[in-house]
Specification:
Blueprint: E1 5-11, H1 17-25, E2 30-34, H2 53-58, E3 61-62, H3 75-91, E4 95-100, H4 103-111, H5 121-132, H6 136-146, H7 155-168, H8 172-178, E5 186-193, H9 196-212, H10 215-224, H11 239-246, H12 255-282, E6 292-296, H13 301-319
Helix pairs in contact: 1-13, 3-4, 5-7, 6-7, 9-12, 10-11
Amino acid sequence: MTPPLTPVLVGATAVGKTVVAAALAARLPLTVLSADARQVYRGLDVGTAKPDAEVRRRVPHVGLDLIAPGERYSAGRFARAAATWLAEIRADGRVPWVVGGTGFYVRALAEGLFREPPLEPARRERLRGWAGELAAPELARWAGRLDRRFAGGGRQRAARAVEVALLTGRALSWWQREARETGVMRPWYIHLTLPRETLHRRIAERVDRMLAAGLVTEVEHVLAGGVAPAAPGLDGVGYREVVAMLQGRLAAAGLREAIVVATRQYAKRQETWFRNQLRSRSSVVGSRSDEVWTLDATPEPDKLAAAVLDRWRAITTDDR
């Protein structure tokens, strides 16, 4: 059975996905399914730019606040949960709208998971201990050596690539390609983009808002709760710079600029990933030309929402 068509709003951090989704919710009974690997952590609100309480009162969300900082969360775990969320949202008579910038989460929903090979627990635990002692750049180098298709994406993904390659004898990319199962949705992508100067300005403004809203205090609170400084969640952009400052490895005066630069680099990686992945998808023989729609996010959110909704209604009418 062909999965239902599902709208997927993607784009780099700070491009405006959240405000466009909120504007859409004023026009359509939708539920946002968050595809953001950082927003799954409870208590990490400021630095992950989670929708605020007022937006979440107006617009139902799933996929937020799932685990505590320090716990690992994979694309596979996300996709299994999201399959249930999608069914529940549709059963409630609402439209599921996937929104996020974590490409691996989106791909897991659209293209399916791979069947993970059995990994011997004791060896896996020893390997995790060894990997945990490596600096992030060194861990990424190991991942690149063991899997030539490793595309980066942070410490957790690098550790995963190393773990699978060493414990199975095959690269993670091989498993993802050769042992893939069916996806749980048929996506219609709305890829929001901005001119570089505009995106950079929005990133700087967002960093200023985060710092004013208490990003440093948020990190101090999490660390005081016993979470390790390099634990999953705190290894993300913004958080790792604050940790470095609190540990004396970064001057307080340089914190803002360090976060701005790291966020720009992260946004560039996201844009590269979406541009390549979505172009690849739209070129597949037999795929619909309207599966990927790239949209300039410069106009006001209400105008963008109106345009997206008109396109969505036209596509779903043709899809019947």
